[in-house]
Amino acid sequence: MSKDMGQIVDFLFEVGILAETPRSGFYFLGSGKQSVAEHVCRDVFIGYALAQMEKGVNVEKVLKMCLFHDLAEARTSDLNYVHQKYAKANERKAVGDVAKTLPFGQDILEILREYKLRRTREAKLAKDADNLEWILSLKEQADTGNARAKTWIPSAVKRLKTKTAKRLAGRILKTGSDHWWFADKEDEWWVSRKKKAKQAVDKYASTAFF
Q1: How far apart are the C-alpha atoms of 168 and 184, rounded to whole Å?
Q2: What CA–CA distances, in Å, run from 138 to 2, 67, 155?
Q3: At 87, phi and psi to the nearest 5?
Q4: pTM for the complete prediction?
């Protein structure tokens, strides 16, 4: 058990490297930056949303696929579409070497095998979540003036496989990336931090968690 515990600790340190591993596509995009861990974090939320929007989907599987889909990059780094024309990362060996040290390694291998085969609805949704995360990132950069990002979006949208993901992508492209917090630009809150916005916040804070 102490050996397993030590190997689990090594694994937890290893996944921390994902926070220090940059998503290299941003080099070519010319603006923005993101670590693999940051990508995985939003990917998990997207996968959850897609799974909830579908019926009869194993939500846990989708979440696990999203969580582990870039695990190999702690050892291989991130190769973007340009890099992959000329270099190939041995992701199977990277994940296999990690998995064989862990008491739950077989579970990781099985979930990634299903993800890579893309035969199940869960695998298709998880891959769509991966691509939607990139589409969201491109939209954020386009909204701040990166014209190149706008030209990259159509090819990313074409990668989507499920109707749910395609519908979500359509709404993403019509929504400003600041809409969630700056939709009401005429709200007095943005000037004085008073009046209706503050009253609404105070009311919410007093009732939301009780």
Answers
A1: 22
A2: 45, 21, 11
A3: -135, 145
A4: 0.90
Rounded Cα gap, residues 127 and 203, in angstroms:
40
| Total domains present in the chain | 2
How many angstroms separate the CA atoms of 111 and 97, rounded?
A: 16
Cα–Cα distance measured from residue 171 to residue 161, given in angstroms and rounded to the nearest whole number: 16
pLDDT in tens, the chain (210 residues): 567 899 999 999 999 999 999 999 999 999 999 999 999 999 999 999 999 999 899 999 999 999 999 999 999 999 999 999 999 999 999 999 999 999 999 999 999 999 999 999 999 999 999 999 999 999 999 999 999 999 999 999 999 999 999 999 999 999 999 999 999 988 888 898 886 645 555 666 666 655
- Judgement on whether residues 131 and 38 belong to the same structural domain of the protein: yes
Which residues are CB-contacts of 76 (< 8 A; sequence separation ≥ 6)? 89, 90, 91, 94
Whether 36 and 79 have beta carbons less than 8 Å apart is answered as no
Same-domain pairing of 83 and 173: yes
Q: Which residue range is the domain that position 72 belongs to?
A: 2-177
Strand partners, 22: 35
CB atoms within 10 A of CB 116: 15
- Facing residues of 35 across strands? 22
